[in-house]
Amino acid sequence: SASQRVFSGVQPTGNLHLGNYLGAIKRFVELQEGYDCIYCVVDMHAITVWQDPVELKKSIREVAAAFLAAGVDGSKQIVFNQSQVPQHAELAWVLNCVARLGWLNRMTQFKEKAGKDRENASVGLYAYPNLMAADILVYRATHVPVGEDQKQHLELARDIAQKFNNDFATSIAANGLPEKFFPQPQPLIAGPATRVMSLRDGAKKMSKSDPSDASRINLTDSADQIANKIRRAKTDPLPLPESLDGLKERPEADNLIGIYAALADTDAQGVIDEFGGGQFSQFKQALVDLTVAKLGPINAEMTRLVADPGHIDRVLGDGAARAEAIAAETMTAVKDIVGF
Ligand code: ADP
Ligand code: NA
Fold it and tell me: What residues have CB less than 8 Å from 243, skipping those under 6 apart?
């Protein structure tokens, strides 16, 4: 029903990886059962840092292909590309005027992505969380499946929704609209692997935006590439622990066990029940087999889909039309509320 609507997005900024799959795309598929879902290729977020135009166009289709290949049903759910629905940008401007500078100044992702040369970061990179709030609120979505790295941005979206509802309370009522015009979007961040770490550095997250990380497992990797990356993954010399307590202060072990748990639809305890006390070399072989078994078919289907860009463009076009129908309704109300 419309009162239980899921929204989430993935940036078309290069190779999708195991973290994107476990933290986001795998959940997108699971949530189709109980919710109306809107899944977006967020190209407007992508250009907050420089993107080669030819590569960007290719990446947009690849991300859409990954959604479909993983099992998102583009005819039942809405799959589309952000820039095709102008209401995202339109609402983002209004929300730029609701969010406070102090709130954005606290965003850790901006600090990480801008790095030391902050003066040279784009204004878009700074305002990115307001656009993300618009993405969610323009559909009045109630649930947002994301990885842990997006938790702070989700909290900001909730604050923006609340401030809009408060600032415009009189106008919302005068227009006969519900008091909580924008619902508070709830993050869905649960289970193992909500933050997949780099396989060579247990302190850094696996990320598209780190091109130097050759250990990253991409959705387009061959079985051999996956096997090599997992075999080379950093671990400590100890065997797998016999209990969850034994994972404390062992970030690399924790990461690999979390990945296995997520791929096998179990939890860390389930993995320890099976492999606890064993050697990592054996566990890694089991992880290779499982990862190849889960990602292989997705990879093959992505390849098939990407070879037919016309089909992907039709899915995206159809999704954009259905998304815009919802977004336009929200924007009409927002204009009445604001006094435009
Ligand atoms: P990236 O950070 O790799 O550029 P995006 O910003 O496009 O990827 O994020 C797409 C989705 O994937 C988001 O829901 C994000 O939280 C999730 N995600 C990204 N990296 C990871 C990770 N290492 N572990 C779990 N989820 C992740
Ligand atoms: Na991210």
Answer: 272, 276
